Automatic annotation (TrEMBL):
Pfam families: Slo-like_RCK (PF22614). GO terms for biological process: potassium ion transport. Residues 15-73 form the RCK N-terminal domain. It comes from the Bacteria. It comes from Jeotgalibacillus malaysiensis. This is RCK N-terminal domain-containing protein.
Length: 113
């Protein structure tokens, strides 16, 4: 887990999940996370940023990770659809669109009388 906003490991009881404080799209930070040998990377959107900036950081993280390890499987969360094509072009293998997932979840709970 890479996060620049946290001071300590949020899941310290989960020993199989390492924590690195840093900016995920920086190659030095991804190197510390051993992205060169990783099989999969899950990128979540930074909830502390506005949508466009968070999604831009996600695309940069995909691009950097794929440059370091072209075979890594990247699952990426985007808040909106604006940068979906860029995420695909950067090498995302799967994309989760947060607004779409939340909208579908809300609609599934809607009752019609």
């Amino acid at each position: 887990m890479i996060d620049d906003t946290l001071v300590t490991h949020p899941l310290y009881e989960k020993k199989q999940i390492d924590f690195i404080k840093g900016v995920a799209y920086q190659s030095a930070v991804l190197h510390r996370a051993c992205v060169e040998t990783a099989k999969e990377l899950i990128i979540t959107a930074d909830q502390h940023l506005d949508e466009e900036t968070a999604d831009t950081h996600t695309v940069l993280t995909i691009l950097t990770a794929k440059q370091m390890n072209p075979s890594i499987y990247c699952v990426a969360e985007l808040i909106s659809t604006q940068l979906k094509e860029q995420a695909i072009s950067a090498g995302a293998d799967a994309i989760i669109l947060t607004k779409q997932v939340i909208g579908e979840a809300l609609l599934s709970k809607h009752r019609t009388n």
